[in-house]
Amino acid sequence: MPMEPHKWCLSYMSIRRSYLDYNASAPLRPQVLAAMQDAFTHPGNASSIHGEGRHHRKLIEAARKQVAELVGADTDGVTFTSSATEAANLALTPDLTSDGRPRGADVLFVVETEHPCILSGGRFEERQIVTVPVHPNGQIDLPAFESLLTQHAGKVPYLAIQLVNSETGIVQPVAEAAKIVRLRGGYVLCDAVQAAGRLPINIGELGVDFMILSAHKLGGPQGVGAYINAHSILSVPPAIRGGGQELNRRAGTENTAAISGFGVAAKLAAFDDKKYMDTVALRDSIESSLHPICAENGLADQLTIFGGNTQRVGNTCLFSVEGLKAETALIAFDLDGIAVSSGSACSSGKVGASHVLDAMGVKPEVARGAIRVSLGWDSKQEDVEHFARSFQRIIRRLGEMTQNAIAGAA
């Protein structure tokens, strides 16, 4: 019989847990919770003109400024949404207007390692979407991209490119790609969801037109994101119609508490060199433990660290030990009190093939064992040591199984 929910919770809470899945969702910061609780205690609607309504409006506008400052954007360019996915669907449209005059995009170019909300193309038709390949190191193949642009000469291009990949942590050369598009009179959307707080970001220096963010990757609440427009003269039609909220860009009563929490999270997540290097040190400690543990069990040649020789953000490690299935490892880690992932957390909890590793040309037998460890604001050395002990037990069992199989074959 399945365990009753309350008993499962007691069992779950009795195990020392190390949360190492920040790329899926970061734990809520205490200061964020306090800000949200304060917002919840005040009645009102930000669209109302009475005192209570003005208080909600003040909270929202303060958060708008904080989110804008995180990425070097103008405050007026920030539009709050229910998620980064909604923000992507708002930004990804061929029906753009520049200075009040229609100036649409004809072709949407999407890098093949993008998040599913980008790969789906938003409001572009399927026939308008072109996939851009990546090098084996996971970065965009710029010569191939330029060749694709030449094939669509005479059409206004729109490129969607992430700054940091959620699975590998690999950093894309966004500014370089954006320059290529600008020379052809096109538009660029940057998915900065996994980069915000982990890299210094300035939307103007990147040279992109639009950017999307998500609060819960920063230690903010789930259910709130942002669409950022870098140009006051550029506009897109709303994806959700109704009232005039968010300056007619996104209808629906604003979620004041969540937005307020987003603002606080954005302020706390502002890039800091010391915090970044502390996180890098933890990530490097994890990776340095993988090699000797695998070697001790005769599996050194089976270990792969993806993106190890490419520019990566400092909090992410994606690795695989050939012969170890991801779903088996995830269960074993969880039973040991460790939360890690097999990649992007957008498939209803299922462990499936990674389109990112497939695009990088990784062999299926290697990709199916990919495990992602991602760190964040509350990660500690104890978590790293906890992970190493658990990994050692898992690999020891795999090594014994491998040796037994070899002996049996002999």
Question: What is this structure, in a nutshell?
Answer:
The protein has helices at residues 5-13, 30-40, 51-71, 84-91, 116-119, 142-151, 174-182, 203-206, 245-248, 256-268, 273-296, 326-335, 355-359, 364-367, 381-409, and strands at residues 18-19, 78-81, 97-98, 101-102, 107-111, 129-132, 157-162, 187-191, 210-214, 225-229, 234-235, 303-305, 316-321, 338-339, 371-374. The protein is α/β, with parallel strands linked by helices. The relative contact order is 0.16.
User: Total number of helical segments?
Assistant: 15
Total number of domains: 2
Give a count of the beta strands, DSSP E runs of length 2 or more: 15
Basic shape? globular
What is the CATH class name of the largest domain? Alpha Beta
- The CATH homologous superfamily of the largest domain is termed Type I PLP-dependent aspartate aminotransferase-like (Major domain)
The residue fraction in helices comes out at: 40-55%
Strand order of the largest sheet: 2-10-9-8-7-5-6
* Estimated structural class: alpha/beta
Low-confidence stretches: 5-10, 405-410
What would the CATH topology of the largest domain be?
Answer: Aspartate Aminotransferase, domain 2
Order of SSEs: HEHHEHEEEHEHEHEHEEEHHHEEHEHHEH
Q: How many strands, which pairing sense, and closed or not: the largest β-sheet?
A: 7 strands, mixed
Annotated CATH architecture of the largest domain = 3-Layer(aba) Sandwich
β-strand percent reads 5-15%
Rg result: 23 Å
Distance between the termini: 42 Å
Mean pLDDT rating: 92
